[in-house]
Design goal:
47% helix, four-stranded mixed sheet, Rossmann fold, six-stranded parallel sheet, 22 helices
Length: 475
């Protein structure tokens, strides 16, 4: 069959974790009231920022690496169909099978059917944002198949019947006492005397997972990179649990977003320097696992690659917003964002939180389904400075704000402002009238209803005693 990218359709409703149950302002209000959550986030993001800053400072060519990463990603998006077809050909040549999934429903159906064919009732999973995005675990459970997360943080989230709140550290919102309580409540065979000492918690997880690794015949993974030149897939991780999943089972199923493809093997040189420093503050990833198709007698003997669109073609169609597809899921933008640090990831309602989620999720779903997320930012620009592939997140946020639906009252106010500003005499009168704001509200720092909604979360700037026009006229 001829392979092709899907038409620019957004991710379907009713499946996956891209849409929240409530808008960001309401969810953020709840999160801000959780003092323990804010302490956990502040400690974690501060630690990661400091560690990352130290190792980045060691590289004199860091900015050149960022530019190279950005250029590679731009090249990928300019010829994505060609690279994906090349990747499919190379994977097939090496004994793998490639499946194309237009959306979450198709991807979940493909993976579920592949697992069923093996007769397995349980699968082990490598940490994967793509499978979280499409709610694959829920689809497998509905089919009577038990998914077991093997990444420690993902395991904590799964056992706690929770949702990830960070791209790199999904359980960043939990402290070690909370993790101990989750293990005692939900982990089979755990020692009732388990303490919250980190080595003890890690040992408990290791004992639980060891039997699972050795007795499960099917694994599901994501992919950080797919190399079109050779058909090689790559997963980077910090614990080694992912490597167990990628080497021990008989069948391996990988779900990869179509934007994760890179043209050549040499491109990894750039990304394997950028990713660990920007994400975990390490010089290199502790575990980088790569595989190409099937190797007789070594590793999984059945390999399936599911190429996932699920709204990515719609993002690609936007000349400004497509930058979001450059993302390598390092989480650097989350760790520097003052909004994320105070609200956490759950407030975003999507598996992709923080600044990158505020620009990626609305495009994957359609802006109207996530209309509040482009406004979940102070536009301070820290995310742009931190991004290792130079995604201009502030510019995309402004772009998406222009696409978001606005209340009729706000539209009326903006039309009135535009009318006044385009007429110099009327604008001059409005400036003189604005001085009345000195006596409006409390000490001139708030506006009366119905405009009070705008100043409920911000101070009204004090109107100067003299306008520029008055100053100019006087001279």
């Amino acid at each position: 069959m001829t392979t092709f990218l899907g038409m620019p359709a957004t991710a379907p409703r009713g499946v996956g974790h891209l849409r929240g149950d409530e808008p960001f302002p309401r969810a953020a209000h709840t999160a801000l009231a959780d003092g323990q959550l804010r302490r956990n986030l502040r400690h974690a993001t501060t630690t990661i920022r400091a560690k990352s800053g130290r190792v980045i400072a060691e590289l004199p060519d860091w900015q050149e690496l960022r530019s190279a990463g950005s250029a590679i990603k731009a090249d990928v998006l300019s010829r994505l169909p060609e690279l994906l077809e090349r990747l499919e050909a190379r994977v097939t040549e090496r004994g793998g099978v490639v499946h194309w999934a237009a959306d979450a429903n198709e991807a979940n159906a493909i993976v579920t059917e592949l697992v069923r064919r093996t007769g397995a009732e349980r699968v082990i999973k490598v940490k994967s944002m793509a499978t979280q995005e499409i709610a694959l675990n829920e689809a497998l459970e509905a089919a009577g198949i038990q998914p077991v997360e093997t990444d420690l943080a993902e395991l904590i989230v799964q056992l706690g019947q929770d949702r990830p709140s960070h791209i790199l550290v999904p359980a960043i919102h939990r402290n070690r006492s909370e993790i101990r309580d989750i293990f005692l409540r939900a982990m089979p065979g755990v020692d009732p005397g388990l303490t919250d000492d980190p080595p003890a918690l890690a040992a408990a997880a290791r004992r639980y997972l060891r039997e699972t690794f050795l007795s499960t015949r099917v694994a599901i993974s994501g992919a950080n990179f797919g190399i079109a030149e050779t058909g090689t897939l790559a997963v980077v991780e910090s614990e080694g649990n992912g490597r167990m999943c990628l080497t021990l089972p008989e069948t391996l199923i990988t779900v990869m977003g179509i934007e994760k493809v890179v043209p050549a093997w040499t491109d990894l040189e750039v990304f394997l320097q950028l990713l660990p420093r920007a994400s975990t503050g390490e010089r290199m990833n502790p575990y980088t696992t790569m595989w190409t198709g099937v190797t007789p007698g070594d590793g999984p003997q059945n390999f399936h690659l599911v190429l996932l669109d699920n709204g990515r073609s719609a993002v690609l169609a936007d000349r400004v917003g497509r930058q979001a597809l450059h993302c390598i899921r390092c989480s650097a933008c989350l760790n520097v964002c003052p909004v994320y640090e105070r609200t956490g990831g759950h407030a975003y309602g999507s598996v992709y939180p923080g600044p990158i989620g505020a620009v990626l999720s609305p495009q994957l779903t359609g802006v109207e389904d996530n209309a509040s997320l482009p406004f979940a930012s102070s536009l301070c620009g820290a995310c742009f400075d931190a991004c290792p592939v130079k995604i201009d997140i502030p510019s995309i946020l402004v772009h998406l704000r222009n696409q978001a639906p606005h209340p009729p009252a706000e539209k009326a106010v903006m039309r009135a402002a535009a009318y006044a500003m385009s007429r110099p005499r009327l604008y001059a009168r409005a400036q003189r009238a604005a001085k009345l704001a000195r006596i409006a509200g409390r000490r001139g720092r708030a506006l009366p209803p119905p405009l009070s909604g705008w100043t409920a979360a911000r101070d009204l700037p004090e109107v100067p005693r003299q306008t520029f026009r008055d100053w100019w006229a006087a001279r």
